[in-house]
Each structure stands twice: as C-alpha cells, then as structure tokens.
Amino acid sequence: ADPLEIQKQVEHEIESFLMSVALVDKRRKFSLTPPGIDIESDGHNYYLFTEPGMYTISGSGIDFILTTKDGKIIDSKRERLAKQQELFRLISEYGTDEVAVKILESFRNALNRDDKKLFYLYEIRETLKTCFENGKGAIAVLSLSQTDWHNFGKLSNDKSVRQGRHFSEPTSLARDLTQEESEFVINFGAEMIEQYLSYLQNTKKNV
Prior knowledge:
With 207 residues, the protein is mostly helical.
C-alpha cells in the first residue's frame, strides 16, 4: 500500500475520532501536534506517534487505543459511549462533505475561541440555512426545534453579550453568557451538526 495514502487515511480517521469526542464532550479542545504524524510498522501493525500519545492500528479496520506516554491505557473503542462511536462513524464517512467540512470547522473554532463562541456557532446555523435555502427548510429537514433555533439566533445577535456576533464596545449592559446559556448554545451547535450528519446518512440510504 502507498504510505502516503495510508497516512492520509489515518489522519482523516484520527481527526474524525477527535471531532466525535469533542462533539460529545463539548469542552475539550483537540488538535494534532505536531501537525505531521510519524508512522512506524513492524510488518503487521502501524504505530502512529503524536505529541499527546500513541494510536495503534491493527488488522483491516482502524481502531484506536489512547495511552499516556508511559503506556497506560486511558481510553479505547470499547469504552467509548455509543453516541461517540456513532459520531465517529458518521464523521469518518461523511466528514468530507462540503457542508460538513464547514460546520465541523466552525464547531472546532467555537471550542478554541470562547470569546468568539457565538460567532462561530452561528456560522453553523447560517451554513445550514443556506444549504436548505432558508431557516424553515433547515428546521424541517433536520428535525430541529423551532424554539431552539429562534432562541439560539436571538442570543447570538444580542449586542450586550461579549461572546456574541455583534459585540463591539463595552457598555454598562455588557455581560458574559451565563453557564446555562453557554451550555445551550454549544449543545445546539452540536445538535445541528449531528442532525446534518444523520441527514447525509439517510439521504445516501434512500438513493
């Protein structure tokens, strides 16, 4: 097999895995550092080394065992939640879709830039709105709550919220998102992504 193709496939699978964990956890910020991945092989298994730890690939399918630097297992596929496993599969299979690429990147940016959280999460809403022609189309096709869609938009456009899209200058009314609001917007952002990935899967099944 072409080593470059193997590395490309592996990088995609790792990014899919890390993104699925981030979607479920909604607090962790994942990245591959350094950007390059070192691959070694003993003829049967491929070993990928990155700064955070080690991933082991064996057999014809790709599976992951996360370890600390001293080899202690901290997570494995069998221990992950069913939801995260399903998201991993969906992102791995449909993550290269043009819209999926955009909304996954927006979610990743929202996790990495708390001060711009609503700006990036709102990008997900706008991308899906464009994809389905309008908000009503996105809500209907993706089975999203109209109330949540509205409240998410209202909060994102609140000029007094520091993490909002239109916050510019501090005033006496300036405020941060409450913990409840912060959890709501990140959860709704993740829900929009999950519903879109499920939509891609269902569309493929019906073709």
